[in-house]
Amino acid sequence: MTIGDIGEGATLARIFPLLPASRRTLLGPGDDCAVVTVPDGRVSVTTDLMIEGPDFRIGLSTGYDIGWKACATNLADIAAMGATPTSLVVGLAAPPSTTVAFLEDIARGFHDAATALAPGCGVVGGDLSTAPVVMLAVTALGEFDGTEPVTRSGATIGNRVAVAGSLGDAKRGLDILFDRAVAPDGTVDPVAVAEAWASHPTEVAAQLRPEPPIAAGRSAALAGATAMLDISDGLVLDARRIATASNVAIDFDLAAVGDIDSLTGGEDHAMLACFPVNATIPPEFRVIGRVAPGSGVMVDGVLFEGRGGWDPLADYSSASNQ
Ligand SMILES: [Mg+2]
Q1: Core-most of 96, 156, 232, 262, by most CB within 10 Å?
Q2: For the chain, how many structural domains are there in total?
Q3: Are residues 132 and 87 in the same domain?
Q4: CA angle, 275 as apex, 270 and 281 as ends, to 5°?
Q5: What is the mean pLDDT of each run of 10 residues along the chain (322 residues)?
Q6: Same structural domain, 182 and 231
Q7: How far is the CA of 8 from the centre of ligand 1 (A)?
Q8: Is the full-model pTM beyond 0.90?
């Protein structure tokens, strides 16, 4: 049974009951808008697109994986501001030939990611349409509960730089999947995908079903973090964003970071935060460097010259042209 067979209303009726509920909902799906409460008067808002092709491949990712990742990456952006995720709005477009079961699988992935990573956060609304490929546009809302937003511009010289969550596993997982399961013509071998899951569960899960440390973002804000973001494109590339916004340099200790994959691999959605030297750093974080005078990102005191991560426009364009 496809979504084209049963139409929008019946498809939505199948999906809504599977989605997680938000504890801040005054009025949920069914009207022209949802209505949510904001206890302290400030809302953090972020949005993220996931497009079949540049962002995922059906076959490598199940519907469940796609829903999980779309949810988790948006939760990570809310957490990276020191906020707590409360509500999600989901726009989804898919070819009419898409099975209803596939969309239900996406909804279950959404449900399980929200429940596992940000209990109480849920889907308050969305829209459904058709497109040549599967596309998700997720908007997440969060609340600050009395603390100030943690931006990228507050790092000061002498701060310790710390990370919560894994570094490099998502890139290793992507490399394993592409090496073993994607043919040169782009076709996916489902047996090889299953074997990759079995042999490298940590790395493959980090890529397809990431578990960003959402609560750590809030812990960092409460501990007085001066700057923070989630590592979506690579440790070096994202750290440079803090360095530029804060007009400082960030110097990583390579032994503490790990290896080159950990320096440049994207999509881990770990939290990278700067803390004053006298702060009590939350236990989820480990110190991997310091904020120094100057500009850019250094590794063991030497300026890192390369881009240091993934650019979704430039890199996908060059990969597609190979
Ligand atoms: Mg981010």
Answers
A1: 262
A2: 3
A3: yes
A4: 75
A5: 95 94 90 92 96 94 98 98 97 97 98 98 95 98 96 98 96 95 93 97 97 98 98 95 98 92 90 98 98 97 85 65 42
A6: no
A7: 32
A8: yes
